[in-house]
Specification:
By secondary structure, the protein is α+β, with helices and mostly antiparallel strands. It has helices spanning 4-8, 12-22, 36-42, 52-59, 74-82, 95-99, 114-124, 138-141, and strands at 25-32, 64-70. It has a single domain, classed as Nucleoside diphosphate kinase-like domain (Alpha-Beta Plaits, 2-Layer Sandwich), CATH 3.30.70.
C-alpha cells in the first residue's frame, strides 16, 4: 500500500515502478480513503500500543493506493524493497530509505507473512478485483522458464 503521505507527495508512480521493474506482478490496484473501521481491522495487531491512535489517524488521513502483488518470494522481496519500519534504519535504495525520515510517515505498508497477506487481501479486495494473468516477460524473469 502507498500510504497517504506517499500519495500526497507524488510517489505512487515511483513505488509502483520499482515493484514492476523488479518483476513483481500487479494483480490488483485501487485508490481509496480507508474508513476508520477498516483501518482498525488492518492494524488490529497494534491495538493498545502507544502509537496506535496516531497510526489510525495517519492511515485514514487521505487516499491510499492498495495493491495485490505477486512473485517468487514476493513478501520477503517486497519487504526488503520497502526497507525498515524506521526510515532512518532503511538503506538507500529502499523506498523508505530513499523517501522517508520518520516512522510515523514511512510511505508504504506491506504484509509481513503469508497469513497477514491473506488476511489483508481479504479485507481490502473482492475476488473479482484480483487478476490472474501472465506477464510477457515471465520467461525472462524466472529460472527454467525459457
Ligand atoms: N508514530 C509511530 N508510528 C509507528 C511506530 N511503530 C510503528 N509505527 C507505524 O505503524 C506501522 C505498522 O508498524 P509495523 O507493523 O511494526 O511496521 P511495518 O510492518 O514495517 O509497517 C508502521 O509502518 C508505522 O507507520 C512508532 O513507534 N511510532
Ligand atoms: Mg507491519
Amino acid at each position: 500500500m502507498v500510504k497517504p503521505d506517499g500519495v500526497q507527495r507524488g510517489l505512487i508512480g515511483d513505488v509502483v515502478s520499482r515493484f514492476e521493474g523488479r518483476g513483481i506482478k500487479i494483480c490488483a490496484m485501487k485508490m481509496m480513503k480507508i474508513p476508520k473501521e477498516l483501518a482498525e481491522r488492518q492494524y488490529e495487531e497494534h491495538k493498545g500500543k502507544s502509537f496506535y491512535d496516531s497510526l489510525i489517524a495517519y492511515i485514514t488521513s487521505g487516499p491510499v493506493v492498495c495493491m495485490v502483488l505477486e512473485g517468487d518470494n514476493a513478501i520477503t522481496v517486497c519487504r526488503s524493497m520497502m526497507g525498515e519500519t524506521n526510515p532512518q534504519d532503511a538503506p538507500m535504495g529502499t523506498i523508505r530509505g530513499d523517501f522517508a525520515l520518520h516512522t510515523s510517515k514511512n510511505v508504504v505498508h506491506g504484509s509481513d507473512s503469508a497469513e497477514s497477506a491473506k488476511r489483508e487481501i481479504e479485507l481490502f479486495f473482492n475476488d473479482y478485483e484480483i487478476q490472474k494473468y501472465q506477464r510477457i516477460d515471465e520467461p525472462w524473469l524466472y529460472e527454467g522458464k525459457l
